[in-house]
UniProtKB/TrEMBL annotation:
The keyword Hydrolase applies. Residues 188-287 form the Peptidase M20 dimerisation domain. Belongs to the peptidase M20 family. It is an enzyme of class 3 (hydrolase). This is Hydantoinase/carbamoylase family amidase. It comes from Jannaschia ovalis. Its cofactor is Mn(2+). Its EC number is 3.5.-.-. InterPro entries: Amidase_Cbmase, Bact_exopeptidase_dim_dom, Peptidase_M20, Peptidase_M20_dimer. Keywords: Hydrolase, Manganese, Metal-binding. One of its GO terms (molecular function) is hydrolase activity.
Length: 387
């Protein structure tokens, strides 16, 4: 049986490294992050695991063939559980199960790239390519990682049979339903285009309304048209966002001549992503034709959905039913995780704990201690069935 009190004490100890009020700041390879990585390597060694820091800064506790983990770096204003939950839960399970190894990947939160440590390990990115990535101040990943010398090589993925990543949901679904556990079906795919609407820039005082070709009005109409076009195609888990807008000339006394904006949409199924894309493009063409605006749509940026392994999902469902009867569900993950990369190497599964109020990437991020303990119990049960 895992020791929930010891697990919570470890989470609290990690929270103290880089603490800011209720939150934490540990950017990949900053002083607090390096301190936390060395602290974690010591905890792995104390637990009887072979502790290793690899050249990318990933921290490993090696023993069995089932790999459990996540990340311990944070956002610039991070919560105490984002990533840390999965790593510390893995540590506690490994103490009682010799079939388990644990990993804390580096730079999941994207100070330099995005999920950088697991990208390197999975072969999506070479270490040399990663070394050239820079943070917002121009520091390179290569220079930053020199501050944490490797104690060993990256482990060969073939030594592991499967990967489990427990994580907070970072959304409101479980908390709103009063549920304790989410078994992840897939990590959603993401697509994005940049749209440029061109109208006629003119004087805001002298141009009659009926003669205007106002690019902002086109954007506003496009937002409505996209919502209407997507309504019949989507599920409650589908999302779309116009997140970045640039208006030209962006002046109080000028009719906007140009609006450039991003449209991003996410879903767990490729077919639905395709259907959403067709509907978005058709809506944009419709609106601009009616309004007499020019339309340019960029090439689509696409990250495919990552399905979680069906066998691992079944094991996690059984474990959830045993420890949180009637308080669990299957659900997609709307956020990216290291499991996306690890799924290229081996079967991967994910487990969610609720986020109070759905808050994450914020100092206020939190989860009830009872729910953290349930997450640990479900993980330990699943690991026992898999080892
Ligand atoms: Zn995370």
């Amino acid at each position: 049986m895992p020791d929930a009190a010891r697990f919570l004490a470890d989470l609290d100890a990690l929270r103290a490294i880089g603490a800011r009020g209720t939150g934490v700041v540990r950017r990949a390879f900053d002083e607090a992050d390096i301190h936390a990585r060395r602290w974690l390597a010591d905890r792995f060694a104390d637990a009887g695991l072979e502790a290793r820091i690899d050249p990318a800064g990933n921290v490993w506790g090696l023993r069995g063939r089932l790999l459990i983990g996540s990340h311990i770096d944070t956002q610039p204003e991070g919560g105490w559980l984002d990533g840390a939950l999965g790593v510390i839960a893995g540590l506690e399970v490994a103490r009682g199960n010799p079939g388990v190894s644990v990993v804390a990947f580096q730079d999941e939160e994207g100070r330099f790239g995005a999920t950088t440590g697991s990208e390197i390990w999975s072969g999506t990115l070479t270490l040399a390519e990663a070394d050239a990535l820079t943070d917002l101040d121009g520091l390179t990943f290569g220079a930053a990682r020199a501050a944490l010398p490797a104690t060993g090589a990256m482990p060969d993925p073939s030594r592991f049979s499967a990967y489990l990543e427990p994580h907070i949901e970072q959304g409101p679904v479980l908390d709103a339903a009063g549920e304790a556990v989410g078994v992840v079906t897939a990590i959603v795919g993401l697509r994005q285009v940049t749209v440029t609407l061109t109208g006629a820039q003119n004087h805001a005082g002298t141009t009659p309304m009926h003669l205007r070709r106002d690019a902002l009005r086109g954007l506003s109409d496009a937002d409505h048209a996209i919502r209407a076009a997507l309504a019949p195609l989507v599920t409650p888990a589908s999302v779309w966002t116009i997140g970045h807008v640039a208006l030209h000339p962006n002046a109080p006394s000028a009719v906007p001549g140009r609006a450039r904006f991003t449209v991003q949409w996410r879903d767990a199924e490729t077919a639905r992503l395709d259907a959403m894309e067709a509907a978005i493009r058709a809506a944009l063409e419709d609106v601009t034709r009616t309004a007499g605006l020019g339309l340019e749509i960029s090439a689509t940026t696409a990250l495919p959905p990552t399905a979680m392994d069906p066998g691992l999902r079944a094991v996690l469902r059984d474990a959830a039913a045993a420890h949180a009867p009637d308080r669990w569900r299957e659900m997609p993950s709307g956020a990216l995780h290291d499991a996306t990369n690890v799924a290229r190497l081996m079967p991967a599964g994910m487990l969610f704990a609720p986020s109070i109020g759905g808050i994450s990437h914020d100092f206020a991020e939190d989860t009830g201690r009872d729910d953290l303990a349930i997450c640990l119990a479900v993980l330990a049960e699943a690991a026992a069935r898999l080892t």
